[in-house]
Amino acid sequence: MTMRYARGVDACALCHDPAGRTLLVPAGEGRWTLPGGAVRHGEHPADAVVRWVGEQTGESVSVVRPRQVVTEIDEAPGERIHRDQIVFDVAANATVLAADSWFSADVTGGLDLTPVARDALGFGSAVADRDQAETITWSATPGQSSTRRQRFAAYGFATDTLDNILLTLIAKGYPGAGRWHLPGGGTDFGETAEAGLRREIVEETGQHGEIGPLVSVSHRHQPSVVGPERLAMDWHGIRVVFQVRVAVPSTPVVMDGGGSTAAAAWFPLARAAELPLTEVALEMVTAARPS
Asked: What is the pTM of this model?
């Protein structure tokens, strides 16, 4: 039997009302899960989660903050699907409409919950923090092709004990060449966001960091960009950024030569703000600077 591999990115909502009840939706076969679903091509994950909550429950919500990324591997005969599920804390905007979708804490613990719901509610991890991922060629998500791709990537806002910031220089021939970027990149099949980021930081800088909380989720849609095969692509990048602490910093060394990283270095925050930065690096450096 030929095995089919696929990947997708979901946006999910963790919503509590003033009474502490949790908003859940049916997941089939008697199971319950967080409201949410697939992020459309070109859609910001924060917009996707608001859309899904409205479609599934009738509730109007606002995103409060990104909470975590839960990686889940769905397996069926002849198929394995890797899902990176971005969980957002959201707040209901108006009067509760879907009364039968709200569950008190004493009830929630007794429900048959999906892995992402269990993880977000603190009942256990969905997938172990895998350091070893599968090296495979996976197909695009449904509706995509070799010229239309959605990519999930994890980056780190990494600091040392003196609050210097770790940045990487994009090599010639790659989008953003000559700009300084956050360490990180695309995760491999079967690899959690945290494990992928840990691997990328070592490969690009030689540093070993402790992965902290999720601090930012963004995206970039480029309907016509030249891809690695020098062909035009409709490219949608979804980026999550984690706080990273490097307790024992050293002189950065690019371990994986010949790739998209030309150099890596530590910079004081004020100096980093003066560099030519990528969009996501500028966002994080600006947010970290005193107002």
From this structure: 0.91
